[in-house]
């Protein structure tokens, strides 16, 4: 049999089927997943507060992985990654860079959500030649007005979720009207489509450290986002209680040439509620 008779295995394009791998760099063992065809510029996903590998919506990941090499990973000290959660967003960005460099990439695209969008901004500012295209969703700029109130909002919604035996993301990410409640239930169900090799949940200590880092980011002096000249797509719902929707508009004003999408009747998880519309837009924006 010659080489032409042996076909290469088809790439995994379903996030539910992507195996969890590990990589050690600078003393930290990072847990990560890869899917989609290899080659070209990969898309690295930067995740939200308290999130592990299992918190990415497959209806967002899978459409992008049809044509792109997608990489997700657990931040330091979260899920199956070792170490302690950094105390600042800047340090989280440094850890993300360590992971990306250890994989051997010097050029990537970034898809980020919420806290991941804060990390993404610092990553681009600290390594301006690293990121080719940037997606910022459900997030805001350093020093953004009322971003530091995320602590009170988060603990209030954690209480509401406990009292109703619900997932906190149903309160934090979605409106509490009929439309939002249906979208929340569908989103939570999608997060459980993966039934094997699931990640470890974040610890309480790690969660509190991340939350304080976000609060401090919100109270810090603004970054000079005029330095960001790369193509940038910004999206959010019109009623984001965690990172106020006006901060997405603020990002749009600060990042020259950026695109902005605001989804109606939706909250922090607007891109998940409107995944059928947003995923193709994001995939097209990130196309080679």
TrEMBL record:
GO MF term set: hydrolase activity
Keywords per UniProt: Hydrolase
InterPro entries: AB_hydrolase, AB_hydrolase_1, AB_hydrolase_fold
Chain ranges of the AB hydrolase-1 domain: 42-272
Entries under Pfam families matching the protein: Abhydrolase_1
Keyword hit for Hydrolase: yes
Name this polypeptide is given: Alpha/beta hydrolase
Species this protein is from: Microbacterium pumilum
